[in-house]
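Forwarding these from the shared drive since the link keeps breaking.
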Amino acid sequence: MIVLGIETSADSSSISLVDENGLLAEMVVGYSRRHIETVTPGIEALLRVVNIDISSIDGIAVDVGPGLFTGLRVGVATAKSLCYALGIKAVALGSLEVLAEGVLRAVRPGYLEAQRIGSLDQGVAHSGERGKEEEMQAGVPARQRTMTGSRHKVMATDCDAKSEGRQARDVYSPSPLHDWPLHDWIVVPVVDVKRGQLFWNTYVVDGTSGIVHLVAAGDPRLSSPRELVDSLIAATQSDGAQTKIFIAGSGVLDYSEEFIPLQAYGVTLGAPMLATPSAGVVASLGLKRFMMGQYEDYDKLIPQYAREPDAVVNWKRRDTGRPDIQPDIQPDTQMTTQVVS
């Protein structure tokens, strides 16, 4: 089964192809929010590289957000159009899940091995040179990869100085990650949804069913950077806390000054290369969903914005004369104010 992954929730757009044997190819096709003009040509280019006809695609996985409003609309519209034209199904994935999965694949050698054998206890810290190489590439932006772990080498296109400058804001906290037992991990993906708000959740590694995978520890939350920092500090100080917290995403980059003090509490901050969801992870997770029968009709794909668009907020402020109006939370996005546990 061949699955096309589409990732457009961040400044860059990326696409990928996977099958049952792993990643076929992945490509970053645009920076500076040029989603509209790069995604479709990028898909055509990727298919040419791997010498696969578009009719061979069996399913499409797409990141539905939260993320950039225009980017999400482009990604979802592209997925819908292709599904309709090809008569195939789709899988919708959230940005937080994709970020969390990418983080663990990148920084914890042994996670993919644990997934393969279905046991947390047997997932070793070092899974061999080839396995380690594949895992470490999972969290690296495709523009920096040579794709040695895949069957095709794909170079990214359309990089620019602006995105390079943002990537240079490194707030990574060194830590002996390889020694962390998988069952002790808490991954906190954080998406900056602008106007001083962050969308985030906590994920833990579960292997109780014989299938090793990340599961959400609660509902997604919308809060200020300060509120998130306070929650994480409280989690590290709770009685008997043995967990290892790893936080990453665009929110960590954009509010790095707020999060750097967390290092004193043992929280690890993800490097910039882990801040953007990967189309390779989107396609990989999508393939698993297809194999489990967890897919849907294309007309059910809906972008998850987490809050109102800026344009709507600006109109409200203008019409009411109230500059203090804040964005409403998107009705179909559940939020809580729970402390991480």
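-- next protein --
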Amino acid sequence: MVIRVLVLLAAAVCAFGEEDAPRFRAEDVRPHGSGEPHPLVPGLLTWIFGTNLSRSPGCSAESVMDGATYKADLCGTRVLVGGIEARLVAVMPSQINLVLPDHPWENEMVSFQVVRDGHASASVPVYFGFNRPVISLAEPSFAGGPVWIRVEKPWGKGWLRYPFHAEPWDMGPGSFEVRFQGRELPMLSLLPYPPLGLGDWMVGLPREAPAEYRHRLPLHLVYSLDRPGVYQIRYTEYRIRPGSAGRAIHLRSDWTAIEIPPSSAESRRAWFQAFTSSPPEDPVELLSNFLPGLLAQHDELALRMLARYLDSQDPLVRQYAAYALNYFDSTLLGRVVPGRTPLRGGVR
């Protein structure tokens, strides 16, 4: 009888300990400010949601604005990330704000564990991504056609939405380098001036671009990609150094290979006919996809289609089309749109 009581008592203690242990899920570990999970990176301000994460009502660092005051233990709560103690900003029974350790995790699952007054949660694996942009082809392409590059930036490093300004060749805060057959490719010589690649502010659109048009840039508007083969590309963002006119690298991708398959004149004509068979009227669709895609070709058919938008009722479409005239030969311009001069000056 005594043995049975002791066994029941031990079971009750274990059950109480399990109920008292912190609990959270992988999807409850998110970058601070995010309502949804995203890949984490070292040093990121992060929050964890769950139950029994700290004593009630919780506590915070001496100054939440001063990282020097963040501690590994607040109110008896610690967070282990890959076995390394994280610096805690604030702890509450249902939420922890913390700064991830500066350990070089990349493209891997890393264990998270919350320990509260000696009660440890289960070890929960959470995905760490890349602490740099990752670039890839956004959609299938072909030599002489539109080449859209997807740019996935780490959480908290901004986002991309084309167009940034009225100039079709403006890549916003970033710029590309391109190599082909071991040589650096020059930018298109027809551009009146190269992309500035500074700042991430952008012109307003009547509404937000569809999700499939975000986080991508039209590489064919800056470089000639009319030869089939493997191209090496790299994306870089710069920022002005405080107190100087010099630039410093803010973000940079790895050199990444993309393959452009061959095409024939017949296949390009077929693509053009299909692409232009039902031109959109919506300014967002025009600016985010149709017009930049159209500019992959610099012939008379493309120019005649572009000319429809030179007098658009939408001022941004009208200005974009006027800048787009720079992609066409002056003789062709004089024959198809006489009296129209390409816009060349940039306004910020």
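The chain has six helices and 18 strands. Residues 26 and 274 are 45 Å apart (CA to CA).

- D.
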